[in-house]
Amino acid sequence: MKSFNYHAPKDVKDATKLASSSSAFLAGGMTTIPSMKLGLASYKDVIDIKNIKKLSGIKVSGKTVTIGATTKHAEVAASKDVKKAIPALAKLAGNIGDAQVRNRGTIGGSISNNDPSACYPSACMALNAVIHTSKRKIDADKFFTGMFETALKSGELVEAVEFEIPEKADYQKHPNPASRYAIIGVFLAKHKKDVNVAVTGAKSCVYIDKDLSKKLSSNFSVSAIEGMEVKSSGMNSDMHASAEYRANLVSLYTKKAVEAC
Amino acid sequence: MASLVGSRVERKEDTRFLQGKGRYTADINIANQTYAVFVRSPHARAKIKSVDTSKALKSSGVVGVLTGKEIAEDKIGGLIAGWAIRSEDGSEMKVPANPPLAKDIANFVGEPVAVVFAETLDEAKEGAEKVKVDYKVLKAVVDPAEAMKSDAIHDGVDKNLCYDWLLGDRKAVDEAFAKADKIIKVDLINNRLVPNAMEPRACVVDYNTASEEITLYTTSQNPHLSRLVMSAFGGVAPENKLRVVAPDVGGGFGSKINVYNEEIVCSWASKKIERPIKWVAERTESFLTDTHGRDHVTHAELAVTNDGKFLGFKNETIANLGAYARVFGTVTPTYLFGPCATGVYVIPAAYSNVKAVYTNTAPVDAYRGAGRPEATYTIERLVEKAALELGMDKTEIRMKNFPTQFPFKQTLVHTVDSGDYVAGLEKAKQMADYSGFEARRKQSEANGKLRGIGVSSYFEACGIAPSAAVMSLGCGVGLWESAEVRFNPTGQISVFTGAHSHGQSHDTTFAQIAADELGVPMENIDVVHGDTDKGTFGMGTYGSRSLTVGGIAIVNACKKIVAKGKRVAAKMLEVNEDEIEFKDGEFVALKSNKKKTIGEVAFACYLPGQRDEMKSPIPEGDEPGLIESSFFDPANFSFPAGSHICEVEIDPDTGNVKVEKYTAVDDFGRIVNPMIVEGQVHGGIAQGIGQALHENTQYDETGQLMTASYMDYTMPRADNFPEFNLGFTCTHATSNPLGVKGCGEAGAIASPPTVMNAVIDALGGQEISMPATAEKVWKACKTMKKSNAKAA
Questions:
Q1: How many CB atoms lie within 10 A of CB A4?
Q2: Does A1 touch chain B (CB under 8 A)?
Q3: Are residues B505 and B562 in the same domain?
Q4: A41: containing domain
Q5: DSSP string for B134-157
Q6: Do B661 and B773 fall within a single domain?
Q7: DSSP element (H, E) containing B65
Q8: Choosing a second label site near B388 at 20 to 30 A (CA), which of A68, A208, B300, B654?
Q9: What integer pLDDT is reported at residue B613 of this predicted model?
């Protein structure tokens, strides 16, 4: 690991002031630190945001659940409020990585990194999340822009994620047997008006499967999507899973999610 | 006194390990040490046109940079192949030079080309980045099945062929096959595995400029052997000026048998730069450069009669050696593989033909089981397929071909001293509720799942010794083991062994044995290993040999202690030696019932002479002191055997395979510590399930290792296993006085075919290769569905 300046500011203003083109915000460090150790990334300044109190915590209002950026997966998984409002979100958080990862990794870190196989982005998409940053509010469908790419500008920091509470929801994941990232993950949310089927792991970036969402919006049952082909074109194909296998899993786990709702 | 042998004594070493007090190589620091970082080839095959170290030498903190040129100039020898194997035509095997630092050509990704020493690790890394190597990239040879048709990667090794070896009789096999009702055939790939010891390799070298002695702390399974190789072949230092210490070592599985490039380079360089050197592998380096395991491509056939009798067996295998032949690299696919290829069966005619090839991949060497898992996989897949094709029960066909008389002269090499294969399989069937399987299969079907059951019966030749046999098969050294027992004047005992514990619990097991022999509490005994300055000599630990060879040397040394003790006690008690009986730590004069404890006798041995009441207890012809040693060389290998039964359930929608039940019945002869043996079996089965279902080493066509981290290489985890159901049958070995057999590798030998037989059974006999990953199984399920639909 190359040497760097370590900063631990106490508020967001100081944190963003320190940011530059050669800096990184450090939340749980689940990706940043291994990348630095492997020499894949190096920074002049590492800005640790875990001492910024306002970035951590869970709030439930009537219609939404807001989770602070540095809230750990284990906290979300164990939160009575989250379990009550959006149990699928607590389930998702409780199955990320392993116990060590869940006790360090954060929601803000996960979505800012936007790993194509990460779990949280699918919840953001399906639950019509609004991403609160140090500069603005961004809708989830505008936030995730590509593989490891987001709408965040240089020095812009995620402060919280606000999820819409659905009528029903479920998350289903087929884990990569080695890393336990999602080979594919399906976040299904039934809102009052429509249904969102968000898929992670299958393509270069999280997306809403419009066909599945539409069918389920008009008829929320397994039979509505029975026999519906999920196309493998555009899906990832690697040594862990072919596009064809991923397409099968998306279809299968969407049905499982409907059944679980 | 109750015998300690046979009881579940808690492990002495657990206290330090569980409290974080283990002392591993990376825990050792020497004042003024430098840090080494190796510059490694990023290419699988490339000519090294030039190495420019000028910028690295100027880099902050860099103390020295050395390359293949300097090590060649100093005439430091390379890495060696420990066994000489001859081809069927009588020609000698072809072994290319394997310099510790590549000079002219690099032959696998990760092969070291240069090394940088610096004041700190970061400075060494920075320096290593500044070494500029100019490569001319050549087309890599990766696939073993294609290697013989590809460019020769080593000068003088035509077709990349190390040897074309035959064991057995082709003519007899042809005759047997001509008489057969049916020929069963399989084409198999035994997947390449990365050993993944928990502790990565490391070394710390301290050169003493005054005594000119090099002390090498290293992660070795066999420190004495490392010293011998580095001295005799590496020319690093004379043996008496080289001390090799292997302290606590966190797992080896065969990958730490070899003397590696880094140990040779750092030992040589420490003398050159006159500074201590520390090197610790990063996990990626472990993936790239630890010797890998398995990697066979096999076609095998079994000739059978319609009623299920085996007549003949043949096996044609291509074994991938990787880029170079290492210590056990050439013997693993030959004499550790071929003789076990006919398994636990009476098969009148057999042969194994193995072509070992070089490729531009990491060297392949012994890995838990070494050759015997590959052999067992081959025969047990064939037997299972034979049962299916003949419509016979899979246990019945095995029973029908088991030998019932022991010693059993096995077809190709071994004479198995003892065993009861029928009893083992009967017990496994009962424990696994074999007869209740069909009901469980129906239950799974009702839940939309596919259930399968697999059996495998195995034997293996381990306890790697006897010198006469192994040397006649091409081994470069004798494989005896030594022990020394020092009875100290104040009653504590140090037991020195040449075996090495890197997870095998020798501190406990060996203390149990010595305590029984000497009649003293275990707490009085310390087992000392892993240091060439402590103890006489040793060949180390691999091939399930520690107890059957090293343990017996301890027993024999203890017997010498007792024998001398008897002579001394006789003198102390003023009776004839034949009137003394030794029991439970006491020498008793039978007529008078006067006694001396072994502690009193030991004390007397160190205080010869006469003063006051004390009379000289040392008999004429004996010397003072109570220290005895023994070199044990057994008459035969050790032949553990057993039968395993596995049940899996497959979800046809995802292809996920769940191991539902796993039953193992093993015969390890007399068992010293059942708890430790069960632990060994658990670990072995876990590794075997890993091979069967998860571990999938993949190189791309340019020779880049695609699975070089735990993000991509699937290590099995606790949630991949059911609770293992273990049982034992105990027929004592006749080749050693304790009646013990090796147990360290059996689990990894028996389990891959057991699991795969179950998966293939669930798939209705449709064959798939290891590892049976979810996608592969899903595809097989789809094919099955299609063919079922057609049939309907």
A1: 16
A2: yes
A3: yes
A4: 1-53
A5: EEEE-PPP--GGGGGGS--SSTT-
A6: yes
A7: strand B62-67
A8: B654
A9: 65
Q: How far is A246 from chain B (nearest CA, A)?
A: 9
Query: Which among A240, A253, A255 is the top mutation candidate for probing chain B, defined by the most B β-carbons within 10 Å of its own β-carbon?
Result: A240
pLDDT in tens, A56-83: 999 999 899 999 999 999 999 999 999 9
**Residues 80-99 (A) with a CB less than 8 A from some CB of B:** none
Residue B246 and residue B360 in contact, taking contact as beta carbons nearer than 8 Å? no
Whether residue B67 lies inside any domain: the answer is yes
Q: How many Å apart are CA B747 and CA B724, to the nearest integer? A: 11
Contact in structure between B288 and B40 (CB atoms under 8 Å) = yes
> Which residue numbers in chain B have pLDDT < 50?
none
The pLDDT of residue B666 = 98
Instruction: Give CA separation, B97 vs A225, B70, B78, B165, B290, in Å.
Output: 63, 16, 7, 21, 18
Residue B789 has what pLDDT?
84
Fill in the amino acid letter for B775. Answer: E
Number of H helices, E strands in chain A: 12, 14
Q: What's the pLDDT at B680?
A: 97
On whether residue B364 sits in a domain, the answer given is no
CA-only gyration radius of chain A, Å? 18
Of B654, B694, B714, the CB nearest to A249: B654
Q: Which of B485, B500, B495 is nearest to B528 (CA)?
A: B495
| Structure-token pair, residue B643 | 């039968």
Does one domain contain both B385 and B500? no
The Cα B367–Cα B329 span in angstroms is 10
B641 with B628, same domain: the answer is no
Sign of CA dihedral B250, B255, B256, B257: positive
User: Is the ipTM of this structure higher than 0.90?
Assistant: yes
Query: Measured in Å, how far apart are chain A's first and last C-alpha atoms?
Result: 46
Output b/e per residue, A102-126; b: 16+ Cβ within 10 A. bebbbbbbbbbbbbbbbbbbbbbbb
For residue A62, give both structure tokens. Answer: 């009537």
The tokens for A228 are 């519906």
Given an 8 Å threshold on Cβ–Cβ distance, is B706 in contact with A3?
A: no
With CA atoms as reference, report the closest residue to A26 among A5, A39, A13, A40.
A5
Question: How many folded domains does chain B comprise?
Answer: 3
Task: Judge: B710–A239 Cβ closer than 8 Å, yes or no.
Answer: no
Q: Across the A/B interface, how many CB contacts are shorter than 8 Å?
A: 38
Q: Residue B553 is part of which domain span?
A: 480-632
User: Does the pTM exceed 0.90?
Assistant: yes
What token pair was written down for B211?
């005594």
pLDDT at B535: 82
* Same domain, residue pair B561 and B644: no
Work out the average pLDDT over A17-36: 96
* Chain B contact set for A174 (CB, 8 A): 654, 774
- Domain count along chain A: 2
Question: Rounded distance, CA B558 to CA B737, Å?
Answer: 13
- The pLDDT value given to residue B1: 65
Q: Where are the alpha helices (DSSP H) in chain A?
A: 12-18, 32-37, 73-78, 80-85, 87-94, 99-102, 107-113, 120-126, 140-143, 210-218, 222-225, 243-260
B726-767 pLDDT tens trace: 999 999 999 999 999 999 999 999 999 999 999 999 999 999
Tokens 């553990």 locate to: B640
3-state secondary structure of A36: helix
Beta-strand pair A158-164/B213-218: unpaired
Measured between beta carbons, which residues in chain B are less than 8 angstroms from residue A242?
Answer: 775
Determine how β-strand B408-409 pairs with β-strand B242-245.
unpaired
Helix (H) or strand (E) holding B112: strand B112-118
Strand order of the β-sheet with B161-168 is B161-168, B349-358, B310-322, B296-304, B182-190
B514-542: per-residue pLDDT in tens? Answer: 999 999 999 999 999 999 999 888 999 99
Residues B31 and B127 in one domain: yes
CB contact under 8 A, B712 and A179: yes
A157 located within any domain: no
